[in-house]
Write a structure and sequence with these properties.
alpha+beta; Nucleotidyltransferase, domain 5; 2 domains; 5-stranded antiparallel β-sheet; 5-stranded mixed β-sheet; 9 helices; 10 strands; about 40% helix; globular
């Protein structure tokens, strides 16, 4: 590290300011003695709460209400200012991409309505900030340990009531903390739960291969196949034995990328019970108890 700094100083005008403490709205907490690293956006979240005048707003325990289904036009809600809505969603998205995987699904859900938002969408977007207000002191912790990279992926069948596209999501854990996560709609309409669950791992497999290559560079040796856990037995069966019979012919060929990654020993699929499926937090609104259970598995802990 010191040699790299010296080489850079020869080429650029710069100075060594010591250990990293703050960068791009993210605070870094380093505990060298026990090998822990923490990332938090508490200051950034505080500024958002002030910007959108939610200092006096009541806090909530979940970023989205599991009893509310958002749609393009519910026939009741009135339109709201588009620029304000897009600004709010974009600001929340930065937190969801940075250190708060627990809100990533909720932000992705409200982002679908940026072109024509109404009051119901704005209420849902502000709920995310009310949740962040309550949990702004949470830190995404990483620990120096011998744990291997492990992934989780899941999907929620026909989640979107407007176009019936399913939701896909994945999370990769390393050192007891989430290092990569994703939540988004599938590009096409799935005709069964199995198809939705089978399409989902194609996204996770691509990310797993990238992370595996990155870890191989760090370790100067081939990294072992990345274990990815799934809670749908039918999808696992198709991935492990890709027989093109009448029930799977309609699945686009590009999604069979997963089968090839398994054959090349780049990834390994395993079954995971639904209650322990961390990727659930990326595909649907959860109850308070389940959210807190999975949030802990992501490595999000109060400072």
């Amino acid at each position: 590290m010191n040699k790299t700094k010296q080489d850079l100083m020869k080429r650029f005008q710069m100075k060594d300011m010591g250990p990293l403490h703050h960068i791009l709205g993210i605070s870094c907490i380093q505990h060298v003695e026990n090998g822990r690293l923490g990332l938090t956006q508490e200051m950034y979240i505080g500024k958002l709460i002030q910007k959108y005048k939610l200092e006096e707003a009541d806090t909530v325990s979940t970023p989205s209400d599991s009893n509310v289904t958002l749609m393009k036009n519910d026939g009741i809600s009135i339109p709201v200012d588009k620029c304000e809505y897009q600004s709010l969603v974009g600001s929340s998205l930065y937190a969801g991409l940075g250190t708060r995987p627990d809100i990533h699904f909720s932000v992705s859900n409200v982002a679908k309505f940026c072109s024509d938002p109404d009051q119901s969408h704005l209420t849902a977007a502000k709920r995310i900030l009310r949740y962040l207000k309550k949990t702004k002191d949470f830190v995404l912790w990483y620990e120096h340990c011998g744990d291997k990279l492990i992934g989780y992926f899941d999907s929620d069948y026909a989640r979107d009531v407007d176009d019936r596209h399913s939701m896909s999501g994945y999370v990769f854990i390393l050192g007891n903390g989430a290092v990569s996560w994703y939540s988004g709609k599938q590009k096409g309409v799935s005709t069964s739960t199995t198809q939705a669950e089978y399409i989902a791992p194609s996204h996770a497999a691509k990310e797993a291969i990238f992370l595996r290559q990155l870890l191989t560079e760090f370790e100067s040796a081939d990294y072992e196949p990345v274990v990815i856990e799934e809670d749908n037995q039918a999808a696992l069966g198709i991935a492990r034995n890709p027989v093109f019979h009448s029930k799977t012919k309609h699945i686009d060929i590009c999604y069979h990328f997963t089968c090839e990654a398994i054959a090349n020993e780049q990834i390994e699929l395993k079954y995971c019970q639904t209650k322990d499926m961390i990727a659930d937090i990326m595909t649907k609104s959860l109850s308070r108890d389940q959210l807190e259970h999975l949030r802990l598995k992501l490595g999000l802990i109060v400072m």
